[in-house]
């Protein structure tokens, strides 16, 4: 049998955690032959820790054969000990009257501490996915706070945006969603992201040629994907949680187990690809093989796309500038 892998999840008693943990324990991320140990982090607050105990009771009651161990933590230094995988879900939500810079500062504190803890105690090969918003900048902060770990270990979730765009395109064309390949979502996980289907195919045919509607792209598709999170809050009265957890699972599954040549979108630190400055955590098309992702290079960027890609980049650069003084 395989040795168990250690998986840390932060914000484990939250909404997304509730949709995520059971699927990790069921083998949906690492495979149906891979035992896992869950190391769950919540804030020290008594209510949060008690809620976490409740979630752990339910995990026990599922009797998942692959779940061979589980611990609760309030300190990242113990939660991240020897981990192979980290899902950083917990983040400080925007409160009433809270300004963007306060939100950035509150999260900078959380992700500096977590980056340092990863640096100190996680496996050197740890794969980190940041879900908690502002996800790209939180991933950047954690990466910069972990100088002894490879920068490439730090990623942010763009997969929900990718999956949302796939479903919008499939519905528009009346084609099966699973047949669409080569979609890209560039940039920040925020309404400025740029879903780009210029290279996409469905059953081998060009999606752009099939849809052939630049006005729909600009005025319906791009804004619909960008504002989907808000539309779900409006309809459900709660933010998207199951679909966010599902996207986190897709992201980590593909990173660990590979994509067989298919493109997926991941927020990863740039090495200067497509003119994005080094270390900016930006949504890029990638393929994954043997536990490593690789940015798809050499795609042609037209004027419309360049403008969108720079717009979302500028937002990321502003976020970075907003936390610069908090990083030592
Ligand atoms: P959720 O589980 O719903 O969301 C967690 C984070 O994911 C938020 O930052 C949220 O951002 C983000 N997110 C990213 N993509 C999406 C998406 N598509 N839809 C919805 N959310 C998305 O929040 P809860 O409040 O239910 O739970 C958070 C938990 O984290 C709490 O239990 C809290 O105690 C804990 N926490 C833990 C910390 C730690 O472990 N150190 C630190 C801080 C909090 P957004 O707010 O923008 O929607």
UniProtKB/TrEMBL annotation:
The keyword NAD applies. Its EC number is 1.1.1.37. The keyword NAD applies. Residues 159-323 form the Lactate/malate dehydrogenase C-terminal domain. GO terms for molecular function: L-malate dehydrogenase (NAD+) activity. Keywords: NAD, Oxidoreductase, Tricarboxylic acid cycle. Residues 5-154 form the Lactate/malate dehydrogenase N-terminal domain. InterPro entries: L-lactate/malate_DH, Lactate/malate_DH_C, Lactate/malate_DH_N, Lactate_DH/Glyco_Ohase_4_C, Malate_DH_type2, NAD(P)-bd_dom_sf. NAD(+) binds at residues 11-17, 107, 114, 131-133. The active site is at 189 (proton acceptor). It is an enzyme of class 1 (oxidoreductase). It comes from the Bacteria. Substrate binds at residues 94, 100, 133, 164. CDD domains: MDH_chloroplast-like. It catalyses: (S)-malate + NAD(+) = oxaloacetate + NADH + H(+). GO terms for biological process: malate metabolic process; tricarboxylic acid cycle. Catalyzes the reversible oxidation of malate to oxaloacetate. Belongs to the LDH/MDH superfamily. MDH type 2 family. NCBIfam families: MalateDH-SF1 (TIGR01759), PRK05442.1 (NF003916). This is Malate dehydrogenase. The gene is mdh.
